Amino acid sequence: MRIVILSSSVYSESACAMAVRMSELRHVPVGALALSTFDRGTLLRKVGQWGVREVARYARAKLIPHRGNGQPQLRNPCLEPLLKHQGGVFLSLREVAAVHGFPIALCNEQNAPDSITRLKEWSPDLIIFTGGNILRKQLLEVPRLGALNVHLGLLPEIRGMSSPEWSLLQHVPVGITIHFMDAGIDTGPILQRYEFPHAPQCESLSDLRNRLIAFGIEKAAEVVAGLDRGTIAGTPQSDLDEDHQFFVMHDWLRARAAERLTQSHLAAVPGTVNG
Amino acid sequence: MNGGKDKAMTGQIAKALTEAAGLLRGPQRMIPLIQKLVFDKARVTFEQRHLYSYTTSRLDSGEELTSLLHWILDAQRPDGGIAAYYSLLTGYSESYPEVTGYIVPTLYDFARSAADDRAAAAAEQATRWLLSLQMPTGAFPAGLHSSGAQPSVFNTGQILQGLVRAHAETNRPEILRASVAAGDWLVKVQQADGSWSGPGAYQDVAHTYYSMVAWALAELSECTAGPRHDQNDHGNMDYGLAAERNLDWVLSHFKPNGWIDGINLRSHPNYLHFIAYVLQGVLECATLRRRSDAIQTVAKSAWVLLRKFETNKYLPGAYEADFKDGHRFTCLTGNAQMACVWLRLFEVTDDLRYLNAALKMNEMLKQLIPARGLRGMVGGVSGSYPIWGRYQPLRYISWGCKFFADALLLEQRLTRSFDASTVEALPCAS
Hints:
Chain A is an alpha/beta fold. Chain A is built from ten helices and eleven strands. In chain A, the strands form three sheets. Chain A has a seven-stranded mixed beta sheet, with helices on both faces. The model of chain A has no long low-confidence stretch (mean pLDDT 89). Chain B has a single domain, classed as Glycosyltransferase. Chain B starts with a helix and ends in a 5-residue tail after the last helix. The relative contact order of chain B is 0.12. The C terminus of chain B is likely disordered.
């Protein structure tokens, strides 16, 4: 299967891990299209998502990759098993590409005509989206099978952003959905839904997110194998009339979602008395 | 036709020149005016909005609320009325009966929330002034205190809200009598279709934002219900029915895409302030009259605006029909009103997305309240952001403070009750 990875940056750990996992499955990507890291939009988006301090810490980790003890520094430690390589870890898609032998293209906008032309040259069966722009129709029509996304919430109940946090507050099971993308936000046909059984073991919201991302990559590998064998097909979402879209969660509500997680964590840890 | 347009244009130019001349009488306002213009220009230029962003102010809601209320108390004139605005050109305006009326509930809410006697005293002083303005018909006059004495449906409705609340707080019979007289006049001049048009209506035509009047009548209906007011039983029934007649008329102007026709302001765009008025009036009237159909209709429009706010991180100050072509300024009052609508919808529906949007809106508004400057600026809500925007340019307006204070008071109440219900839901809570 000819796979192309779309990434928000060459330094995206999720994109690196996804490329490694696909390569392990003998689906070495035919290419990766990443947004330029120093693009103004990318930087602003990351500052908005993580905050200035976290972006600075991330940049330091990528530029000075080893801690004092010589250990590699990853933003998501749950991806370490996938990213381990020759005593270190992959820190960029360039390193993964060099080992597995696939080309990387940089762009400032994934929907731009140049990007579409490059994608068409690679003639993909499947695009795997790990981050970047909201994809437009012209791009979505390039791959033979479609563009696949790992959404960190169960569809159709939780669409949009801050999905793990909203799942906690809406009393919807925490999980992931692997789906084909369409012009809407998380409205495309569903390939598989997986509840995440380890949410009560998570100590914080960021721990939950990190584990969900790793869980999603693992499950994406299963789905890609199924697509390759022709045993999995997308199922259109049933209740698109209902508005299940959620937006970035305000800090006050995030703190309440974190409390819910802590309660379930306390309840799950043996020997802990609730309250 | 063109003569009318020319006359209106001449009037606007004359008004602008008079306002600008105000700066000669108050040259101390020159530097703060320039500072504010530069500050807003810089902010508009460098501000970044994207899908993941929302404004975080880290300002405490309680402190911000106190600052807003200080602005309102400072704007109270010696006659007891509240000034309409503080202009960076002309200073404080005359007392404004309409706004004074509907600021009364906000003052009482704040007095209760912060145990602040000054707010309650200000509400009582404002009520005394309002009672002195009532016309023999029961109506209240249009415009600023000094500007003629035409009866106004909208102002009477807005003042009625304040009187109903003042009576609930003080139980004074003269306030109830004034409320009933105002309610009777409103019912008397209402059209058969439920609207208010002709003399007494702004520009003589019917407006959907008069749903605020329906809300006031629904409140009067509640206030006059029960055995203590047997003498008003007939009137009581009329107020509630009159409110619902207007509600039905307003609901007939909602379109399937959430847009509301019939705001009907000649020579003005559809400011967000008036769109939000329609929604607030219908929502509150519907809640009092237990009309779930109307609540659902409001929720649909409120959701359209919520999606726009969440996606673009701001709401334009005015829209063309069908929410098209949003203008490039923000009407802060309308934003605060939308926060109120979303918070009340959260209360009614338990949908946390309304609370989420309102929290972000309040954060954004907090950032735009000056902490330093002249007395009429500190704690004030400007008509527009940037301050030269089309809605009430270069002014800090009292009704902006009122609605933002309402939004923060609602936020405080609902977040506390959310936390309390969460604690109750814990298995260890008894």
